[in-house]
Amino acid sequence: MRRRRKLNVQHLLLLIATIGIVLSLLIILFSTVSNHFKKDDTAAPATAVPTEQSTETAAAPAPASATPDGESDPRFFDTNSILIVANKKHKLPDGYVPSDLVEITSVPKQDRQEMMRQEAANALVAMFDAASQQGVQLYLTSAYRSYDYQVDLYNSYVAQNGQAYADSISSRPGYSDHQTGLACDLGQTDMEDMLDQTFINTAAGQWLYQHAHEYGFILRYPQGKEAITGYEYEPWHYRYVGVDTANAMYSISPDETMEEYFHIEGGDYAQ
Question: Is 27 in a helix, a strand, or coil?
Answer without folding.
Answer: helix
